Amino acid sequence: MKKILVTGANGQVGSELTIALRNKYGPQNVIAADKKPVLNKLTQPGPYYYLDVRDVSALNQIVETNDIDTIFHLAALLSSVAEQKPQQAWDVNMNGLINVLEISRVHHCALFFPSSIAAFGTETPSMDTPQDTIQRPTTLYGISKVSGELLCDYYYHRFGVDARGLRYPGLISSKTPPGGGTTDYAVDIFYAAIKSRHYDCFLRADTQLDMMYMPDAIDAAINLMTADSQQLKHRNAFNVTAMSFTPQQLAAEIQKHIPEFTIAYNVDPLRQAIADSWPKHMNDSAAKVEWGWQAQFDLQAMVKDMLENLRSTQ
Ligand code: NAD
Q1: Same-domain status, 251 and 229
Q2: Cα of 94 from ligand 1 centre, angstroms
Q3: Same domain, yes or no, for 11 and 126?
Q4: Residues 252, 266: one domain?
Q5: Which of 8, 25, 77, 244 has its CA 20 to 30 A from that of 166?
Q6: Residue having the nearest C-alpha atom to atom 18 of ligand 1
Q7: Domain count within the chain
Q8: Is the CB of residue 137 below 6 angstroms from any atom belonging to ligand 1?
Q9: Any bridge partners for residue 244, and if so which?
Q10: What is the 301 CA–ligand 1 centroid distance (Å)?
Q11: Which is catalytic among the residues 141, 155, 185, 199?
């Protein structure tokens, strides 16, 4: 990786990934691009472009002008937004991806594509979910992710594009707000705990899902993209997880730091149905064996760090 493009750089993952890449590879070597006209303050300094990933000629021009060799393609509509705007989500998630794959083919770029726990479905084993298993998602977002995994593998086998991906679980960050996913509660709860000591959760108390703290998610993306290609048997996409908990368990962990914190449940049927179709806990042994994946933050460490960071900035 010498010259890197990050699409969707203004989002929850992109803001922090851009900083990490700029620290590692130099600010001028990491080009941030997003459909939002102004770059999130977090990612300064460094080059920034307005880009709609559906515009293949604009994408081509950025890659050509900047001599890009690696693309982190993050631009997408997330799960609950995608259920509200399914046609637009298909357009952005699939046409954006195929544009990025084509540009990667023409300009010989390596490509990172984040998939998700949404790429499974109700027929997938929900505990110890295998790396290779049945994937019949019932959400538009999940359908776009499993299609994306297949398309990336197709471009690797057919055209030699070095496409690699992760199936991220819900991501938790103290720096950037989430962008409309089903696991957003696991971020919102911290802001509520600090501000009002109470949170109304939109998922049921016993909804168990895989999660990961953002520093681990960023490391995972960079480590996968710098891994020895010869060691990768899988490519799109690796199961990765760091912890698996329910809202009730997360609330109990927060109460160890804020004893007066309370939680109530006001279930949103749409997001509950999405969560119920996802695995509870993935098996990520393929990532551990093939490129040395190891999370640093478990539930206890993540909660402590989130509260410390948010208290120092609120
Ligand atoms: P986000 O919604 O916070 O950010 C997405 C960014 O993409 C936004 O800044 C948005 O402006 C941009 N965008 C949307 N449409 C665009 C378009 N047409 N052209 C260019 N930019 C566009 O999402 P995120 O949480 O940062 O997720 C990044 C990636 O990681 C996505 O592909 C998502 O599916 C995947 N992922 C995220 C999570 C999570 O919990 N956050 C979990 C699994 C996978």
Answers
A1: no
A2: 13
A3: yes
A4: yes
A5: 25
A6: 52
A7: 2
A8: no
A9: 210
A10: 25
A11: 141
pTM of the entire predicted model: 0.95
Which has more confidence, 80 or 242? 242
176 and 145 housed in the same domain: no
Q: What is the pLDDT of residues 170-215, one digit of tens each?
A: 999 998 877 778 889 999 999 999 999 999 999 999 999 999 999 9
Looking at residues 264-287, what average pLDDT do you find? Answer: 95
| Ramachandran angles phi, psi of 259, nearest 5° | -60, -30
Q: Is the pLDDT of residue 25 over 80?
A: yes
Residue 314 predicted with pLDDT over 70:
no
Q: Is residue 156 annotated as a catalytic residue, yes or no?
A: no
119 Cα–ligand 1 center, Å: 15
SS3 110: strand
User: By alpha-carbon position, which residue is closest to atom 28 of ligand 1?
Assistant: 74
Query: In the chain, what percentage of residues exceed pLDDT 90?
Result: 90
Which CATH number does the domain housing residue 135 bear?
Answer: 3.40.50.720
Q: Residue 8 Cα, ligand 1 centroid: separation in angstroms?
A: 6
Do 144 and 194 fall within a single domain?
no
Q: Is the CB of residue 96 below 6 angstroms from any atom belonging to ligand 1?
A: yes
Which of 16, 78, 94, 278 has the most ligand 1 atoms within 8 A of CB, as the residue to mutate?
Answer: 78
Quote the mean pLDDT of the chain.
Answer: 95
Domain that residue 12 falls in: 4-168+214-239
Asked whether 52 lines ligand 1 (CB < 6 A), one says yes
Q: Where are the alpha helices (DSSP H) in the chain?
A: 12-25, 56-65, 79-84, 86-90, 96-107, 140-159, 185-195, 214-226, 247-255, 269-276, 285-291, 299-313
Task: Give one DSSP letter per residue of 15-64, joined into a string.
Answer: HHHHHHHHHHH-GGGEEEEESSSS--GGG-SS-EEE--TT-HHHHHHHHH
